[in-house]
Amino acid sequence: MILIKDIMTKSVVTVSPEMEIAHAAKLLLEKRINGVPVVDKTGKLIGIICQSDLIAQQKRFPLPSVFTLLDGFIPLTSSKHFEKEVRKITAVTVADAMTSNPVTVGPETKIEKLADLMVDKNFHTVPVVDKGKLVGIVGKEDILRTLMSGSGQR
Length: 154
Fold this sequence. Notes:
Blueprint: H1 4-7, H2 21-31, E1 35-39, E2 45-50, H3 51-55, E3 66-69, E4 72-75, H4 79-89, H5 94-97, E5 99-100, H6 111-121, E6 125-130, E7 133-139, H7 140-151
Antiparallel strand pairs: 1-2, 2-5, 3-4, 6-7
């Protein structure tokens, strides 16, 4: 049984919410990583920013869908969803583009459970938290590397 603590990266690259988007993008490219945890000044995990969050800035401005009824307009999408999309497209800082309150796993989580989560939710990078503290990060590449090293032993 393989646990996340056995395959996670322990020296985690992190960014602050105040960091400029361009700097975060450069960091992801230089380090050849898909995502990076966002931590506040106390080191608490507050979000994650991934390549997909940065690519979202290239989307067209989302016009809300509406229909008319008795000379009134009724939105088909929530205003919160619309605001979130606009904020990501116009992001200047990591805080504007990050995914807040990311899904995390614990170090004792089984690799199979994480693999299911990554496939079902289309996650590429998942922070590892123990007792509220960021202790590592796991990416799809870590799981694939583990599976490949195990396949040579069979």
